[in-house]
Every structure is written in structure tokens, then in C-alpha cells.
Amino acid sequence: xxxxxxxxxxxxxxxxxxxxxxxxxxxxxxxxxxxxxxxxxxxxxxxxxxxxxxxxxxxxxxxxxxxxxxxxxxxxxxxxxxxxxxxxxxxxxxxxxxxxxxxxxxxxxxxxxxxxxxxxxxxxxxxxxxxxxxxxxxxxxxxxxxxxxxxxxxxxxxxxxxxxxxxxxxxxxxxxxxxxxxxxxxxxxxxxxxxxxxxxxxxxxxxxxxxxxxxxxxxxxxxxxxxxxxxxxxxxxxxxxxxxxxxxxx
Length: 250
Ligand SMILES: [Zn+2]
Known about the structure:
Bound molecules: zinc ion
Helix content: 25-40%
Largest sheet: 6 strands, parallel
CATH topology: TIM Barrel
Low-confidence stretches: none
């Protein structure tokens, strides 16, 4: 493959990944049936709890339908600046070491792999999009830890990803809570217009935190299904492996 070739399959000129965080119930109830109806697959970043064998049963079914069930750590650590961390005495990234975060990622990956053994390598969703541990003089990026254990990492950024230059272990995504259908289509349309990979991040659907309305998500799904000849919609791990091959080719 030459450096000028596109990494996308067939006649597609860009890629889109739909990602959903935190294993919210409305994703199982609304998002997955909706994606299935339109023949689309997405990435669902879950936190496998101690009862993961039971918790991940419906997610295994989703994986068997082609969706990716990705790694979002066990305990969802984030900055202590978030009240849900500081008020509840939860693990804060500022107080963790690289070894601590590695244990979180490895254990979540082990649990997902045990519950969904037929699934291939998965990507990582940075909790609260934050890729660091420590604070001030001791703050360090944990992107290398993700690169060691996962095929890709989804963070946050202002643009779709350029397949030539993007860091597969800190991919940029657009937070999509409360966007209208037209706004969602606008984000997706940047991908073919720019020859890039747009990643959209969702949480709850109709309810739950940082939600999007099901009707707006459906407008996006309808657009992606009607434009599948030019926009490749696939889970993060699937697109990342293709982009990795492409980056190795030049
Ligand atoms: Zn999360």
C-alpha cells in the first residue's frame, strides 16, 4: 500500500466509530437494538465489577452481534477535581502510580477476556478522557501503559483523527452528550470530507448521565446506514488495526 492510499475499505473516504462509556443500562436497552436495526456496530467501554461473570452476560451477546466490549478499567478512576471522586473517597488519578493504573487495566482486560473469550483484542477508553497519574511534579502520562496492553486508546480532542499521524493510543473523540441529530451528522460528515476517522463518545441514551436523545442517535444511525458506501462505521479496535497497518506501510 502506498502512503497516498486511503486506509479505509472499498470506496469509503473516511471512518466513524460510535463509542459508549460506562456500561449504562440504556445502552443495552436502546443503543444496541438501534445500531443492530441499522446494521451498525459500536464500541462499548465497560467497568467489569466483582460480579463481572453475571454483569457481562448481556455484553457478551452484544459482542457476538459484532460490537466491541472495550476496557474502561475496573474502578473508573478520574481526577479528584470531579466531585463524584472526591465526595465518595474513590480512587483519584492524582494519587495513583503507573503500577496502580496498570493493575486496573490488566484486571479489567482479564475479566472481559474471561467473560467474552471469543472476542479479539480490544481498545481502551480513558476514564473521563484523562491519560495521566500523579500531580504537578510527579504527574506522568499512562498512554505507554495502554500501548502495552490494548490495541488502541480513545481519549478526547477537537478534530477527527488523521490516519497518517494519529497516536492510536490516544485517539481524539468528540463528546456528544445533548447534541441534536443534525449536530451528530455534522461531526460524522467531517470524516469523509477530510479523509479522517471521527470518533463520537456517548454515555446514557434518553436517560442516565451525559445523555443523548434516542431520536437524535437514530438520525445519526440512519445517516451512517445510508452513507455506508462512503463512510466506514466500525468499532475502535477494528478501525485501529487497519490504521496501524496503514501507518506501518510508509
Ligand atoms: Zn467513563
